[in-house]
Sequence to fold (314 residues):
Amino acid sequence: MYGTHFGLQELPFTITPDTSFFFAHSSHQEALNTLLVAVRSGEGFIKVIGEVGTGKTLLCRKFLAALDHQEFVTAYIPNPYLQPMTLLLACADELGIEYPQHVNQHQLLKLLSRYLIDSYAEGKRVLLCLDEAQAMPIETLESLRLLSNLETERRKLMQVVLFGQPELNIRLDNPSIRQLKQRITFSCQLSPLSFSEVEFYISHRLAVAGYRGPRLFPHKTVKQIYRASQGIPRLVNILAHKALMAAFGEGARVVLEKHVRIAVTDTESTSHTHTVGSRILKYLSALVSTVTIFVLLPLAPLTSGVSMITGGAV
Ligand SMILES: Nc1ncnc2c1ncn2[C@@H]1O[C@H](COP(=O)(O)OP(=O)(O)OP(=O)(O)O)[C@@H](O)[C@H]1O
Ligand SMILES: [Mg+2]
Fold:
């Protein structure tokens, strides 16, 4: 791999959401601040929406790591595509609650509420974070509301944070869970990186990976990456990684435009942005030839006549 070639201690552009690479760009920092304020309020549901690859899982990990664990007890469910009972079991497992082998829903809810009451008595707040929440079945979302209904006279016993792709909003529009929707007291939206953020993002990740040399991605190559990735961090990572591989393959010390072009062509989700221009050109030239044929067709006998006459004259 290219690590030693570029003087890196680790790979800078992996697609694992590793918190040590966290880059606090405006949208992420804002969302993190909102989350930290929202959990202090101890009320209702919190929702974080972001397109595929914008960093929801990373933000969730960063947020959980930023909490004071003397005060917060947290449960993280990475894939809540579960039936209501399985979700309750997953919560119990995450919180370390013991239950009998053939526990039923009623018993499980009782155990969970006992746990929440005890935690409250110890001055602890319980927080449930659900990643990929757009995949949750409606009945499971509804059971979540019932779980979060447990409260004292003063506050809720458990708070829930939903991280999901924009489809989560569509799911929440379902009239059968309007009560849950009404309880969302804080929500934030993760946006893609702007051009200058992509520039900082790339150098930030390189620096965390131990790069100390001169600029590795010249301005023009960042522009190419930004255009092809639309500022989606996961795509930026994939392109930057492949561009580094291409540069390394040629023994180059900096990434050149041709290296990024190779990366873009080689990447499913971005190669269309690379070829869109050529496709438009192809379409336009096909259109022009069709129009030309239709315009020139009626003139054809005339034109051939002219050439014949001309030919005869020569
Ligand atoms: N603010 C950031 N700082 C550093 N890296 C980031 C940031 N945001 C996203 N990334 C990187 O982008 C990649 C995708 O992030 P992540 O897996 O968190 O996205 P996601 O929104 O959860 O995607 P999906 O919708 O597919 O679940 C990861 O490699 C992650 O490290
Ligand atoms: Mg994710």
Notes: Residues 56-57, 131 surround magnesium ion (ligand 2) (CB under 6 Å). The longest strand covers residues 158-164. Confidence is low (pLDDT under 50) at residues 275-283, 292-297, 299-314.
